[in-house]
Amino acid sequence: xxxxxxxxxxxxxxxxxxxxxxxxxxxxxxxxxxxxxxxxxxxxxxxxxxxxxxxxxxxxxxxxxxxxxxxxxxxxxxxxxxxxxxxxxxxxxxxxxxxxxxxxxxxxxxxxxxxxxxxxxxxxxxxxxxxxxxxxxxxxxxxxxxxxxxxxxxxxxxxxxxxxxxxxxxxxxxxxxxxxxxxxxxxxxxxxxxxxxxxxxxxxxxxxxxxxxxxxxxxxxxxxxxxxxxxxxxxxxxxxxx
Length: 242
What we know:
Helix content: over 70%
Distance between the termini: 29 Å
Shape: elongated
Low-confidence stretches: 1-48
Strand content: under 5%
Number of domains: 2
Structural class: mainly alpha
Number of strands: 2
């Protein structure tokens, strides 16, 4: 991650990868960014971000949760597109009438592997959401006892209850969509394995019935992914506006 402002460049390399993002900050923001960089450089990995270091520069758990939800939403979209691509490759192979089956099989196999990678990444993002949300809501609840004003405490308690309810709805939608992935992946993996040693017209004909079943599963996955993505967008908007 590279921060750029008034000629200042600080580079953080996480897990051997360097990605570039350019932001223009005021002098005050510049100091904050420098402190964040110094804090993050001392960590052993990108995933072990310390809340305390971020909160010192104005980045709170609420901001981190919104960021994690955005990551999971984008990962859901990527997983959906990848599974659709794998399904399209399988349908193309099963309906293929030519002689170059090996090349089409290799394309299918690669798409399935990419789908597995996307699914693993999605699971990581969902885990991040669960950890940050639990920390945020626990902190929020513990702070209720610090109020001397009953009116302010009641206001925050109401907002906390609503935020938890909205998060639970969004997270449930995300999990429903995630659970749609496994049956699709199971069929794709079975077909890839079956064709590995039986790549011929007879084997392809035997799989045509499964293609219809898979089509229905993919349609359900797409529908639930779209609902989950919309719910994530709504949650992000509410968190930013509250």
